[in-house]
Write a structure and sequence with these properties.
With 72 residues, this protein is an alpha+beta fold. The chain has one domain. Helix content is 33%, strand content 14%. The protein has one helix at 3-26; strands at residues 36-38, 45-48, 68-70. The protein has a three-stranded antiparallel sheet with strand order 1-2-3, with helices on one face. Strand 1 and strand 2 (45-48) form a beta hairpin. The two termini are 24 Å apart. The structure holds zinc ion (ZN). Residues 29, 31-32, 34, 48, 50, 65, 67 line the site of zinc ion (ZN). Zinc ion (ZN) is lined by residues 29, 31-32, 34, 48, 50, 65, 67.
Amino acid sequence: MTKQAKKEYQARMDAIHSESLRIRNTGKCPVCGAGLRDNLSLAGWVQCEQYGSAGFRKDSSKASCEFQCFTA
Ligand SMILES: [Zn+2]
């Protein structure tokens, strides 16, 4: 990886990271509007409360949502 490519890669990662932090601070999923929760199996892993199959998401009567992001 060239120095310039590395710089661009880092800038992209920083942008994604700050966007993830911004979303986390809103406490709302940007896709479906449900709440967000921390997945405790990995630090910084934030998921929509509606993430996952029935029985795992917060409200199984509502549609599941795939949103997740990393803030660490
Ligand atoms: Zn969602």
